[in-house]
Request: fold
Amino acid sequence: MIPELGHIALILALCLAIVQGVLPLVGAARGMPGWVALAPQAALGQAVLVAFAFGCLTYAYVTSDFSVLNVAENSHTLKPMLYKVSGVWGNHEGSLLLWILILVIFGAAVALFGRNLPATLKARVLGVQGLIGVGFLSFILFTSNPFNRLLPAPLEGNGLNPLLQDPGLAFHPPFLYLGYVGFSVAFSFAVAALIEGRVDPAWARWVRPWTLAAWCFLTIGIALGSWWAYYELGWGGWWFWDPVENASFMPWLAGTALLHSAVVVEKRDTLKSWTVLLAILTFSLSLLGTFLVRSGVINSVHAFATDPTRGVFILLFLVLVVGGSLVLYAFRAPALQGVGVFAPLSREGALVLNNLLLAVACAAVLLGTLYPIALDAINGSKVSVGPQYFNAVFIPLIAPLIAAVAIGPLLAWKRGDLSVALRRLLPAAIALLIALAIGLWLIDGRSFMALLGLGLVAWLGIGALCELSLRIKLFAAPVSETLSRARHLPRAAWGMTVAHLGVALLVMGITVSQTWQVEVQQVMRPGESVQVGPVQYRFLGVSPYKGPNYTAQRGRFEVLEDGHVMHEMQPAQRRYQQPPMETTEAAIRPSLLGDLYAVVGEGDADRGWAVRLYWKPLVSWIWLGALIMALGGFLSLSDRRLRVGAPARRRSDAAAAAE
Amino acid sequence: MRLTYLVPLALFVVIGIGLAIGLTLNPREIPSALIGKPVPEFSLPPVQGRDHGLSTADLKTGQPSVVNVFASWCVPCRVEHPLIMALKRDNLAPIHGLNYKDDPADVVKWLNQLGDPFTRTGADRNGRVGIDWGVYGVPETFVVDGNGQIVCKHVGPLMQHDLDTKIRPLLQDLAAGRASKVKC
Reply:
């Protein structure tokens, strides 16, 4: 009964989405206030219906109703409650429902919080959101219904893939989708602006909070996924350039570019058609990611079980959405002429450089991701593009970008003076030289990449602090003035500095952990010990134990520092019963200085066990850096200029203060 | 309309065509190394309560046969099960079951409840034989000719369409001793 109610709610939501996708757009074009006013109501109604359907599916999972095919295929009575709930989105159908839920929540949020939007613009934005909803609701209802029944019902379910039974992964998809789907709002704003034929600073100010929120969520989502790969797969790596990782990374790169170009539209009323194009491309890349993961064109550890009709459906949808919006763009964008002019050496110029490098990096990732498909389509050969390609292309594009990030904020709008900016960066230049000297001393010039990384970190980190200290007149004015300036500095400025410092931390984590990692792989017998980096691991042995839905072999290590036992580590191999599968549980002792990481593999008491032991200095800075970047985004989001409902006059005051 | 504004659209058209072609290809269809090769050497005891186990010799009897890799814990196996029963009723060839990583009591219950289409069954408790067969997902179905050569491999649950266009014509061709046009 409950699943049928959920099914009916989805059908009603589709009907409402059709209403929302058609009437407000027609109403806005023909000047019919009644139809225009329909949009917010329809958006709210859709949110209620989809939330109800999602609740129904969750109920089926929580009560282990195996007469629902989706539950039988993905759940099990012995699973802990957290994973019964997260199992709802641990599969194709359920995750699609989550996607739609987030889409309609964003729609409802625009309806609720967009009170200061002009009625027709709001109707058009919600109309486009409605059309996207029509596509996804038909997709789920016609090809991937999560409420299909299985009769007779089996006594027990198939269980969730044990790799997904993990707290990091329980929250990874919701954050990722908040990011992906959040960009749909930027997309809808872009299409609405193209329909209206008007892009102005006010438009940029309305788009920016949505883009910023989506970007923050996507950043957290990618970081969670990377963290999960690090500790759950047991390979010790944190990024694999897997096609599905790339699918989430491309919208992030495009979204980062969009954030920065929207600033130019807002402040200088130029770069309009480019910003609109970026908004379209960012969401298109999110959709492309959905296509890659769910259609079966690529083979990946993440790819869902696939079915060709789904692929055809998403491709058609992709063609309609992306093709349609790009056609609209081709017709309307030439009319969007920028007003503000600027010299190449200016804040705008720096942001254009940022956009250029991010866009090219994004294109390079896209090329590497699609190349295997292209080659298979052309001559049928099976290849995969590995990290060598991505590292070789990506690093040379991102390194100059990071170097420029320190300079850009110090250039003035319209026309900047590079020599003044560089003089202000003198402390950063000194830090750069010190970092290079330390790097050369530590590694004997073995690794160019390590030197590059350390140099960039010093330059960007100190550069961002230089910029901040100039704004608050640190040491140049009395302490009271500095404090007062710091208090009155717009949150957006703080957000920028924090996010840029996050980038520096991230690069630091990557550089140090890649260069100074120590890895030992060997067979060990109980009682033996081995030196790994600064610590000594003493192997105590392996013993079996039983968990709620698995059995395991647990190894025990004592970690000694200068002969003293500091911690005990217990890596394990788990063997799940349902479905039968083995997982590696690495034992990780994280700290800010570096992680201890131990994995125990096959073996027995006579011959010893195969073990892998690591010392990974500063590796947690990678995720810390990503979280700080997201924190910077949220800080910027809390700027009163962007807070919806803030009086317009106050908004312009704050904007003036930010100049 | 200035031409530069058409560039994104043109690029998207190229990517779209590529993706459409990509959709018709199957990345999982790793050109199976086993097709045309003899079945691996193995010998498995029968599933509890059945008399006939499964070994290499049973697949070299001069008569073509079907080997279905299944497990009681696998929901898609339950979905394809009625079709395996239907194939059994056609009586085209003996169907053997390779029971993959299963609990002995569960599989007996499963076969008793849903029906047993298998002439012989092999219980591969630890999955070692499955590795030799290149099994990487359950269910999988193999067609083996009378000399014990693997002719066809199907990954995933069999659908009515697969039976009609692949398995049945192939078995009829093998029985008649003619070269088959069926693509696997």
About this structure: The CA atoms of residues 332 and 480 of chain A lie 52 Å apart. The mean pLDDT of chain A is 89. Chain A has four domains: 1-165, 204-412, 425-516+623-659, 518-618. Residues 425-516+623-659 of chain A form one domain.
